[in-house]
Amino acid sequence: MASLIMSPSTKQYLASSSLSQHSNHSRCRYKTTSLSFSSSSSSISLPQPQQGNNFIDFASPEAVRHLVGSLNRTEGLRFAVVVARFNEIVTRRLLEGAIETFTRYSVKEEDIDVVWVPGSFEVGVVAEKLGKSGNYNAVLCIGAVIRGDTSHYDAVANSAASGVLSAGLNSGA
User: Fold this and answer.
1) Catalytic residue among 22, 25, 66, 152, which?
2) Which CATH superfamily is domain 2-14+75-170 in?
3) Are 43 and 35 in contact (CB under 8 A)?
């Protein structure tokens, strides 16, 4: 389980300065059609299906829009990572990968706080508290629930996922 909770200011920063939209419709061999939905501001262009050889080809990789995020200015951004100690053999390696990724994007180590919790069940509660604190631009949640012979896995995995989702919704991120 890994989830990223972002503050509204981080979402605005990413949307305004570093999210680019790549459209390859100009190289597409399909005709495009504009479809309107109930909102006047929503429209989408879809390729017209081409018939041949007893099948209809609706899309190709060139016809698909790609949204690519980029984080190239990290100064002033603070991050928290909530990590479950249970199954630490897994979560520690996930944490190491997260720290390496932060470093690759020029995030300074002093801008990252790591908070250890007993298990995946507690990750969401702590993530919500950190998210509501206003001290972090994003909270990363790391936990590992390993399936065993009992139904315990389902209960913990569902509760942990629900807790992380709830943290994101309740912290305003």
Assistant:
1) 152
2) Lumazine/riboflavin synthase (3.40.50.960)
3) yes
Task: Parse the chain into domains and list their residue ranges.
Answer: 2-14+75-170, 19-69
- Residue 152 bears catalytic tag: yes
- The per-residue pLDDT for range 142-151, each reduced to its tens digit, is 999 999 877 8
What is the spatial distance between Cα 20 and Cα 9, in angstroms, rounded to a whole number?
Answer: 18
Q: What is the pTM of this model?
A: 0.60
Rounded CA Rg of the chain: 21
Q: Over the stretch 33-92, which tens digit does the pLDDT of each residue have?
A: 444 344 444 444 445 555 555 555 555 666 677 777 666 778 889 999 999 999 999 999
Environment class of 150 (CB within 10 Å of its CB; exposed 0-12, middle 13-18, buried 19+): exposed
Centre a 10 Å sphere on the Cβ of residue 173 and count the other Cβ atoms it contains: 22
